[in-house]
Amino acid sequence: MSETQDINELDKKYVDEKRTNEFAEMLEEESEKERQTEVSVGQKISGTIQKIDDSAGFVDYGGRSEAVIDIMEIKNDEGELTHQLGDKIDGFVSSLEGEVRITLSLKANSQQLIRQAYENKIPIDAKVTGFNSGGLVINLGGKRAFCPVSQIDTKYCEDLAAFAGQTLTFRIVEYRDGGRNIVLSRRAHLEAESREKAKELVKNLKVGVEMTGKVTRLEKFGAFVDIGGIEGMVHVSELNHSRVGHPKDVLSTDEEVRVKIIELKGIGGDKERISLSIKALLPDPWTEALNKFREGDIVTGTVVSIQPFGAFVQIIPGVEGLVHISQLASTRTSRPADVVALQQSVQVKILKVDREQKRISLSMRAVTEDAQDTAETKEIEEFRSKTSATQDAAESPMADALRKAGLL
């Protein structure tokens, strides 16, 4: 065999092997697509939005073709898109007729779908047809279902009539007797949605981020704030620059507040802790204090705390100084409460201002002693003035006589 023939045969063999390998890879890809497209009605799938037109969004979920979702499902009440190109989206297969169609929640239009929604914990839309003292009566695909009052919302609902005629999204929590006894929960759906949002939110949480939240409950030690499906806590010391006795004195439940994240611990774990601050977003009163007050100034303040070692006096809102026990009075005292009372108005002298530590040392004793020194000085001056006047009066007759004699 010539060298040319050898080369030609090797060439042919390489091309044949390459074609065989490429064909095998194509078959493998097709098989993979076939496996990926094995979806069923009611199944939950995830994908990425690849295209949006006037009537629908197209989602790449890994199948041979894209899944289709109605445009109205990715718009809000104002007609604005809630999802954009490239966004991840979860949906449920609603139809396989001609194409894979998905929806954010199933419509209760068949017994099979209702059963699938129950077994797979899939949200399902249904219309409220009535209500009673126990909850809402629902038309679920022609079947009567019931949503207890405790399961209507994440908080207690008083006005059940407001839901009449509305189409809402529920989770089926009980399905018995072949569908003759169906119990729904809107609360379960809302909480599941909240958890999903929380998972996404947690990924973006960072110390220093400012957020808007809603006060969910108030305790003596602080306020709990919902910042989008997860709760953080504003400690009582972080509510305001001024002392706060109880959070209810400055906040109320359901109030919207602006907060700053100051600490994150155990995020995603069982002992997750998100520390928030309202105070951090308020103007710092120390800036005013450091510009306004000087050592030696005498100011009026209010006693806001009494401790065994002294009393704290607020000289402007948010700025307190310490009157040490030794500076409360000229006489020795062992109990500050014997000298001052809470909310008492007192005069204090600024002894020291620590700009770096933001601390001010005050004295009530110095004010008293300064007043005593001033009074003593005044008495001495008055005495000297009277003595001088008496001497002048005594010397006056003799001076007149000497003048008459021509000796002065």
Helical region count? 5
What is the makeup of the main sheet?
A: 5 strands, mixed, barrel
Task: Please state the average pLDDT score.
Answer: 83
Give the class from helix and strand content and strand pairing: alpha+beta
Q: What share of residues are in beta strands?
A: 25-35%
Q: Give the CA-based shape.
A: elongated
Q: Runs with pLDDT <50, length 5+?
A: 30-36
CATH architecture call of the largest domain: Beta Barrel
Fraction in helix: 25-40%
Topology-level CATH name of the largest domain: OB fold (Dihydrolipoamide Acetyltransferase, E2P)
Number of distinct beta strands: 21
Key attributes of the depicted protein:
408 residues, OB fold (Dihydrolipoamide Acetyltransferase, E2P), five-stranded mixed beta barrel, five-stranded mixed barrel, 21 strands
Would you write up a description of this structure?
The protein is α+β, with helices and mostly antiparallel strands. It has 4 domains: 44-103, Beta Barrel (OB fold (Dihydrolipoamide Acetyltransferase, E2P)); 111-191, OB fold (Dihydrolipoamide Acetyltransferase, E2P), CATH 2.40.50; 206-281, OB fold (Dihydrolipoamide Acetyltransferase, E2P) (Beta Barrel), CATH 2.40.50.140; 285-367, Nucleic acid-binding proteins (OB fold (Dihydrolipoamide Acetyltransferase, E2P)), CATH 2.40.50.140. It is 27% helix and 34% strand. The chain is built from 5 helices and 21 strands. The strands form 4 sheets. Strands 1-2-3-5-4 form a 5-stranded mixed beta barrel. The chain has a 5-stranded mixed barrel with strand order 7-8-9-11-10. The protein has a 5-stranded mixed beta barrel with strand order 12-13-14-16-15. The longest helix has 40 residues, at 365-404. It is elongated, with a radius of gyration of 41 Å. It starts with a helix and ends with a helix. Residues 30-36 have low confidence and may be disordered.
